[in-house]
Write a structure and sequence with these properties.
This protein is mainly alpha-helical and about 260 residues long. The protein is about 50% helix and about 10% strand. The chain has two domains: about 1-105, no CATH class; about 125-255, Outer Surface Protein A, domain 3, CATH 3.90.930. The strands form two sheets. The protein has a three-stranded antiparallel β-sheet with strand order 2-3-4, sandwiched between helices. It has a two-stranded antiparallel ribbon with strand order 1-5. It starts with a helix and ends with a strand. The mean pLDDT is about 90.
Length: about 260
């Protein structure tokens, strides 16, 4: 038997328990071949379960151990791992939860899982240098209109439709979470200079301003967007305030 065929048979057994693998396993004393294979399969599933529980600690608290375990078991059954690292295995969990009819009365569950994935993404993002306020001051007034901002790789804009983040915060503090209510909000997530993940809400004008830069628009174009909420002088002042706050937090990695 080719090694590739043996490896494929072993993977099939780990993922669905159905494989002719047993006939190639020697029954060398105790336990027998079937038991030895069963140990491997249980360990495989247990590792996947533990990885998801580690990544989604607040989700587990919100659902309770029993319901969380059932949902994760179903996810493992329906979403065999195709990754070399356990870090990416849960990337499909939010969509899986969003499609689960059993969670119809728990509307923020999928969003809570998605928020936790975003926190992981921010924490694991590559490192990048941050520009200081002196770099901004060194630019001439004539150069600013065409300038574009580049952000630290951890920077993310995240929209919620429910009070998902307050629920997460309460769970994190060991408190009883508030009832789920529709509460649209926009959040900014990033990893700070101390390598700690932070997040805060974004006002609608700052969110639009950030989106423009993330989409590659220049300073002049982004300022035009601010005119929806401010007059011309107010838009310029607001733009300066926002960018200075971003720089102070280490969010801006380059001015190009």
């Amino acid at each position: 038997m080719r090694l590739e065929d043996l490896q494929r048979a072993f993977i099939d057994y780990l993922q669905n328990g159905e494989s002719p693998l047993q006939q190639w396993v020697e029954a060398d004393g105790k336990p027998d071949a079937e038991t030895r294979l069963h140990i491997y399969r249980n360990a495989y599933r247990k590792r996947l379960h533990e990885a998801l529980a580690t990544d989604h600690e607040m989700l587990q608290r919100y659902l309770g151990d029993q319901q969380f375990s059932q949902l994760i078991d179903d996810y493992i059954n329906q979403q065999p791992s195709v990754w070399f690292s356990l870090r990416q295995y849960g990337d499909g969990l939010p969509d899986f939860l969003a499609a689960d009819r059993r969670l119809a009365e728990l509307p923020l569950v999928a969003e809570l899982a998605r928020f936790e994935r975003r926190l992981l993404d921010a924490f694991d993002a590559p490192d990048s240098a941050a520009v200081g306020i002196d770099a901004l001051r060194a630019e001439t007034p004539e150069s600013w209109p065409q300038k574009r901002l580049r952000f630290h790789p951890s920077v993310q804009r995240f929209e919620t439709g429910w009070n998902t983040v307050p629920v997460w915060q309460a769970l994190k503090q060991g408190e009883t979470p508030p009832e789920a209510v529709a509460e649209p909000a926009i959040w900014l997530l990033w990893r700070n200079r101390e390598r700690l993940t932070e997040f805060r809400t974004l006002a609608v004008d700052e969110s639009a301003f950030l989106t423009d830069f993330l989409n590659g628009r220049c300073f002049a174009e982004a300022c035009e967007t601010l005119l929806e909420w401010h007059d011309e002088a107010g838009a310029t002042q607001r733009a300066v305030e926002i960018i200075q706050r971003w720089v102070d937090c280490g969010l801006v990695s380059a001015l190009v």
